[in-house]
Amino acid sequence: MGTEFPDDAAVYRLSDEQALIQTVDFFPPVVDDPFTYGQIAAANALSDIYAMGGRPLTAMNIVCFPCRKLGLDVLVEILKGGALKVAEAGALLVGGHTISDDEPKYGLAVTGLISPMEIFTKGAVEAGDLLILTKPLGSGIITTAQKGEMAPPDAMAEITRWMVELNKNGADVARQVDVKACTDITGFGLAGHTAEMVAGSNLSAIIHIPSLPLVEGTKELAEMGLVPGGAKTNRDYLADRISNVAKIDEVWLDIVCDPQTSGGLLMAVKETEAERAIKLLREKGLVYAAIIGRISDRGGGQIFLTE
């Protein structure tokens, strides 16, 4: 699995039983607290391994940091947050690389193991599959509002709780219910990553707007115009892929195109296994887990939004 398909990580076959899975991700702070930022960035980087069905083995820090401007104490807290998440994933932090930069950036290069027979790919969807999202939406909108000191404290605390949450439990459940198609929701938003799942196929995705799990206050903030610029970029890019737009309140376009940080897994589950999957996810504490739509043979490669 390489760059010819838009999957979440590269997979290199070692044998018929084992393959390496590799990914890298880093970005500037999305919260003020350095320890929390470290946790979020690490959870986000580890997520690509889980989205492909793998198990992390090792991680290496990637750091850009203005030491003279912010001081090493801040950097230490970022690295402590990242190390905590790597340990929680059962992986080893084995080094990294640091450069001086005017803006802090942190993340990980992660290597994991996976069986070539158990890889989750984005494009393995089939008509009739139900789409399950494991975490709430809203991180881009809420963190944008927080920059303007307009995010409700409860909403910021709640979305932060989910941004630091590993997708490990979601991936465990995906394996239990024999998922073949999966991705994680990050910078392209729910609509963008859903579009990748049906790209180049004769299938489409139907997303049921009322079923979307949101952190309370997300819709209200979006209605106030507190939407990141990346949401508009995503909307423009997906303009010819999203159908039924005229029938949907415009704020929902911002929400489904909202770029997420360390978002949940989006998995295609057989209809016979969907309710069991939701039960297992909620037993693991993923209380926002919801069936948000289905894969349809209606119109190739489109996303239909319904109310």
Q: Would you mind describing this structure in some detail?
A:
The strands form 2 sheets. The chain has a 7-stranded mixed beta sheet, sandwiched between helices. Strands 1-2-5-3-4 form a 5-stranded mixed beta sheet, with helices on one face. The protein contains 11 helices and 12 strands. The chain has helices spanning 34-51, 67-70, 72-88, 139-147, 153-163, 168-176, 189-198, 218-223, 229-237, 250-256, 271-283; strands at 10-13, 19-27, 55-65, 92-100, 105-114, 130-133, 181-184, 204-208, 242-243, 265-269, 290-296, 303-306. Strand 1 (10-13) and strand 2 (19-27) form a beta hairpin.
Describe the structure concisely.
The chain has helices at 34-51, 67-70, 72-88, 139-147, 153-163, 168-176, 189-198, 218-223, 229-237, 250-256, 271-283, and strands at 10-13, 19-27, 55-65, 92-100, 105-114, 130-133, 181-184, 204-208, 242-243, 265-269, 290-296, 303-306. It is of the alpha+beta class. The chain has a seven-stranded mixed sheet, with helices on both faces. It has a five-stranded mixed sheet with strand order 1-2-5-3-4, with helices on one face.
